[in-house]
Automatic annotation (TrEMBL):
Protein name, per record: Uncharacterized protein
Organism field: Natronolimnohabitans innermongolicus JCM 12255
Amino acid sequence: MNVETIEDLFGSRLQRAYYAERTHAELCSEMAADATAGDFRDLLEDHRTETDDQIGRLEDVFAALGRRPRASRTRTVDGLVESWHQHAEAADEPAVPGALEIALMAERLEVRTYESLLRLAGRLAYADDVVEPLETNLAEERAALEALETIQTERPVLEAVGITE
């Protein structure tokens, strides 16, 4: 897609967000299946369901703009998936990010994506049928990120006192 206008930029970022969410849905399922910590697994399973709703909202945004949903690959998202596959193959390698770190990176990417889309939507004065689904997705992504950060904070404390599951 050639990006020549702000509308083109919005469309391009929307397609990338759609790709990210669809890919993240699959990644959440894979990560949840392999998770050993119950709180982390539950969070991933819940977020997988939430991600399906987010995909539907993005499809609504495409419809509001008179476009068919289309995903555009991004190297960043593909890199997160590759990191997960490396983690699954070499779990004891210190240079390979762990599942929690990968989930945190994915959520941070999605938060930034929605913030960017909302800034562009504001500049374009898009109506509520475009803005509200993006705001809802952003709020859910921020909540998921906060929950992951809580796990990240609590896990070392629990391990230090000998509590593992």
